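Hey team,

Filing this mostly as a record. A colleague (T.K.) asked me to run one chain through the structure pipeline before their review meeting, and I want the input and output archived in the tracker in case anyone asks later how it was produced. No errors, nothing strange. Just documentation.

Input sequence:
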Amino acid sequence: MIRLLGMSSPNVQKVHLMLEEVELPFAVERIDVWKGENFAPAFAALNPNRKVPVLIDDEGPDGNPCTVFESGAILIYLAEKTGRFLARGGAARYAQLQWLAVQLSGVGPMFGQYTHFRLFAPGHDYAENRYRTQAARVFEALDERLGQAAYLGGGDYSIADIATFPWTRDRTGKWGGNWDTYPNVRRWFAAVAGRPAARRMMAEMDKIWAADRTSMADAPTELVDKILGRGDFTAPPRV
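Output structure:
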């Protein structure tokens, strides 16, 4: 049995989508980060970085239990476990891995920082403008690629698409993206969203998102500061 520990963030959604695609039995255990559950010693023992998602596989390599954290590592783990959604070798494998890397190093960080400054630190014009510009740049790169191929890694749907799809779900307008400006991304998004696994993931994760929004609204200021690394939890400058 596989356990997915997480909440409704895009990084958790991508793992949920992968599990739906490979049709392995799994259970989702919600970690309420707005109550600080990711800082609990039991969770920190699973992931010393204290972030979701974490995957626990009771039947890992050689039949032994295996715990994996970091969403990109989890996707590769599941792809290699099942032999699906990652080419076994050749140029196709590296095309898929390089676009997975674009999501991990570009899409997630740029969209995430833009969201942070829009939602949690409004009025910082330089920061918001910078990350809005970077988010648009990433969208442009995705759109150009998807004008050349059906999917990010080439002709086949892969973990690169699975990783990127949740980050392009604009449920609250937080990315600032205009689909009319990125027609190839729009076409690709519709193709992925129409997959049965994606529909199942979105239905389940949107339920968790509703619970997360409630927890966030009720979170005490001190805990929010700890989660966001601000206020008394700001790291001092180091020389």
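Quick notes for T.K.: The radius of gyration is 18 Å. The mean pLDDT is 94.
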